[in-house]
Amino acid sequence: MNIKIKPKSEKSKNYLGTPKSIDKVDTHNLEKQHTGKQVQLNFRVPVEFKRDYQRFALNNSMGLVKVLKESFELYKKLKQ
After folding, report:
1. What confidence tens digit (pLDDT) does each residue in 27-40 have?
2. What is the DSSP string of 48-77?
3. Rounded to the nearest 5°, which phi and psi values hold at 66?
């Protein structure tokens, strides 16, 4: 079985640039201050869970993010 390797064309260049050397990589990512920037968090849940979650937030005059943050803080305390 003969396998031919095609030469790299001009289009296959690395457009991300050269990687940083190991000395320049920031290894303290977990210690950085929170910037307040928000990102999207996506995961799938059962339909009934979503309805119950939204109903709870509405009944307690809370936003969905606030319910998530407060419940996560309580869960972390429970697990420590």
Report:
1. 666 666 667 888 89
2. HHHHHHHHHHHHTT--HHHHHHHHHHHHHH
3. -65, -40
For the whole prediction, is pTM greater than 0.85?
no
The overall longest dimension of the chain from CA atoms, in Å, is 68
The amino acid present at 75, given as its one-letter code, is Y
Distance of CA 33 to the CA centre of its chain: 17
- H/E segment holding residue 79: helix 64-79
Distance (Å, whole) CA 30 – CA 32: 6
Report pLDDT digits (tens) over 10-27.
555 666 777 767 676 666
* CB distance 61 to 70 below 8 Å: no
